[in-house]
Amino acid sequence: MASVSGAATDAAGGQLKRAIDWKGAFWVASGVPPLVLFSIGAIAATIGSPSWLVWAISIAIGFIQAFTYAEIAGIFDEKSGGVAVYGATAWIRYSRILAPLSVWCYWIAWSPVLAIGAGIGAGYILTSLFGHEAAINTWQITLLDLGSVKQGLALRINATFFVGAALLLGVFAAQHHGILRTARIQTVIGIAVIVPLLIVGIVPLLSGDVLSANFSPFAPLAMDSANKPVAGPGDVHVWTLLLGGLFIEAWSTYGFERAIFYTREFRNLVT
Hints:
By secondary structure, the protein is mainly α. The protein is built from nine helices and six strands; from the N terminus they run βααααααββααββαβ. The strands form three sheets. A two-stranded antiparallel ribbon has the order 1-6. The N and C termini lie close together (6 Å).
């Protein structure tokens, strides 16, 4: 094991500038926990009482996976960008088509997060500043009617679009000047996000508002003849729900892998 350190490296030599430490990477990845809020309700409504165990398993898988990514990240002095880049590097010796396709497939899965997150954030901002019936929240311009695809579907521009675009541009501006500035800004944002999440998660435990009855029976959900949720049978239905839940949850829980993406940009790195 050789210790590698330095405030900066020679860019001409193909190495990255080391500007952050592990705390900076932690705060960059701190934007991931809110992703759980996108699907935690849907997962609970689909799986039932075992959903907490499925979340725990998914997080454990992601945690183990992060060590593998860190090992790969330590191999390349000149590369950053995480799984997408590492996958392309592995494929390039076999196919010049599969390498860029690997990058594209990875980011096409994450790109909707930008639209979803910006849209939700814009909605929160608009509804907190204006009423639901305010003109700014109701006006829209329809660009294309997609009713032939799905009833009520349309491509339109509204206030959420403009506020969401402003949020995305703000994120781009924060990241445009390097990882160090991004980490500093994300530290402030991360604290503002994580503290409320901790309050929401811990206070019910201390106040006794968590009902133990909701955790039993420990069985997946099923529908009876009246289409009402009941405890499901212990058959293949169980594994279908649990594995499906793991698949969906991976979208949220594996996201903290982004802390590993910047391994080669740490100031003090042991390889």
